[in-house]
Write a structure and sequence with these properties.
The chain folds into 3 domains: 7-118, Phosphorylase Kinase, domain 1 (2-Layer Sandwich), CATH 3.30.200; 123-152 and 289-477, no CATH class; 173-272, no CATH class. 33% of the residues lie in helices and 25% in strands. The protein has helices spanning 20-27, 70-83, 124-128, 133-152, 164-168, 197-200, 269-281, 307-311, 357-378, 384-397, 406-422, 433-445, 460-477, and strands spanning 7-10, 33-43, 47-56, 59-69, 106-112, 120-123, 157-162, 176-180, 190-193, 208-211, 215-220, 225-229, 240-243, 261-268, 291-293, 299-301, 315-322, 331-336, 339-344, 351-354. The strands form 5 sheets. It has a 7-stranded mixed beta sheet. The longest helix is centred in the last third of the chain and has 22 residues, at 357-378. The model has no long low-confidence stretch (mean pLDDT 90).
């Protein structure tokens, strides 16, 4: 039997979808062998990011390959074409065009591996952990990464009647958590829940509902849950977490959910936020109180009490093309000869939106991932973040000196550099109101991330997130242009 080229060799026997070989053969039809070396990430058995090497005539080239549902691949490709400038030196270009085998519901994208395995490449998260603040700020952020971001953000413009809820609401916990019901109690009243009624009606815990018209956004098989979104806007704030995925299969990702889906509302968004806060502080913590008292005696406003009004406030904002998912893993650092080079990857969330999303996301990542590691390592209490952020705000608006534990000075300098990057894109460069409004949402959103629950460090990351969110609220309360 003749050998089908290219030959696909799964070196570690990784569990891959049945169509993976077809995708790789269509993607690399001009090589002799494709070696699947490792998987960078995997999401609920649906999306795979692979490290592959291609061999042809004795020469080896290395690539990232993303295999995902066809609609998701198309979305990333369209975002890359229309939102990401190709003249930026820090942009990792997609190789060729997407691959969509006719026999599969999955497609593939290919990115050249930075440095082609000739130079050391690591994520910004890993680089932060072993480098000095001076080299990070001057050599890496200001000279490399920020230059790339400014190119992406060029052609920004002020948008009147900006939809803050539509732009930021999707970050928070799902609008409703619904549990599937098989046997309804006699005489049960079932309310209709569809993309129109979810916007115009109020649903409460205990309501029985029949869902129609929602798109399957993602499935988490281990937790037996699916995320459903509005059919034409994946960033809409009205997502639903559907518990029990037996009625939804992975091949329905990005498709309209099958009918009928009947369940009962178990939690609202507000209830989920309150439950997250009680998990990190204990059941005796009153998450509904108007204020919170830190262990050091500082009294702060409770940010949970204003988040709904904040989301629905009328506003304007400066919008532009943005990366949209600027986490510490989507920024790669290449040690190339005698210099450092940054590369942005993963453009699946790129879109035209509030420019501040990118710096806010990056600041929230540092606040909830890097700072908690320092606090745990130095045995510092999370309450120190109130003083940290008060001084960060002062340094953002003046040249005042600051006084912090030495172990936090480096990350303070990094956050201050991010603020300087963001300032020209504020609606009013003399006011940080919109920045703190967005940062508050990003920090409360972090309360739902399971990745911050690592036993060696939890609950410090989420404690930091909540204290900094409360500090943001305190700063906002003293700003004359903060109106709800």
């Amino acid at each position: 039997m003749p050998l089908v080229k290219p030959e696909i060799i799964n070196l570690l026997g990784l569990p891959l979808p049945d169509s993976a070989d077809d995708i790789l053969r269509a993607m690399f039809d001009d090589v002799d062998q494709v070696l699947v070396k490792s998987a960078f990430s995997r999401s609920s058995g649906m999306s795979h990011v692979l490290n592959v090497s291609c061999i042809h005539n004795g020469y080896t080239s290395s690539f990232f390959v993303k295999i995902a549902p066809v609609e998701r691949v198309k979305r990333e490709w369209e975002a890359y074409l229309h939102c990401i400038p190709k003249d930026s030196p820090g942009i990792t270009e997609i190789r060729g065009t997407p691959v969509y085998p006719s026999s599969s519901t999955l497609g593939g994208l290919c990115y050249p591996l930075i440095g082609n395995n000739e130079f050391k490449v690591e994520t910004l998260y890993m680089y932060f952990r072993h480098s000095s603040a001076k080299s990070i700020v001057s050599d890496l952020l200001e000279d490399k990464l920020f230059a790339s971001l400014r190119i992406i953000w060029r052609n920004s413009e002020v948008k009147a009647n900006f939809d803050f809820l539509g732009s930021y609401g999707y970050l928070l916990p799902e609008y409703l958590l619904i549990v599937e019901v098989e046997n309804l109690p006699h005489g049960t009243v079932i309310r209709q829940l569809n993309p129109e009624t979810i916007v115009n009606q109020v649903y409460s815990v205990g309501d029985y509902v029949e869902l129609t018209g929602f798109r399957v956004h993602s499935i988490n098989l281990p937790s037996n849950e699916a995320i459903l979104s509005l059919p034409h806007n994946r960033f809409a704030p009205y997502r639903i977490r559907w518990r029990s995925v037996e009625s939804i299969s992975p091949d329905q990702i990005e498709q309209i959910a099958p009918l009928p889906l009947i369940g009962v509302v178990d939690q609202t968004r507000e209830a989920q936020l309150h439950s997250y806060v009680q998990r990190i502080w204990g059941q005796d913590f009153d998450s509904t109180a108007r204020t919170i008292r830190l262990s050091n005696g500082v009294i702060l406003p409770n940010p949970l009490n204003t988040v709904s009004k904040l989301l629905h406030r009328p506003s304007q904002a400066r919008v532009a093309c943005i990366h949209g998912d600027l986490n510490l893993e989507n920024i790669l650092v290449e040690h190339s000869f005698d210099e450092l080079v940054t590369h942005l990857i993963d453009f699946g969330e790129a879109r035209r939106d509030h420019v501040l999303h990118d710096p806010l996301h990056l600041e929230a990542q540092i606040a909830t991932r890097l700072i908690p590691e320092v606090l745990v390592g130095e045995n510092l209490p999370p309450e120190i973040m109130y003083f940290f952020y008060q001084q960060l705000h002062t340094a953002s608006v003046s040249t005042a000196q600051f006084s912090l534990p030495q172990s936090l000075e480096g990350l303070f300098a990094v956050l201050l550099s991010i603020r300087k990057l963001a300032q020209p894109y504020l609606l009013d460069q003399g006011s940080w109101t919109e920045y703190y409004q967005g940062l508050l949402i990003y920090l409360l959103a972090a309360l739902r991330y399971h990745t911050l629950d690592q036993p060696s460090i939890a609950p410090r990351p989420k404690q930091v997130a909540f204290i900094v969110a409360a500090t943001c609220q305190a700063l906002l309360n003293n700003m004359p242009d903060h109106k709800l």
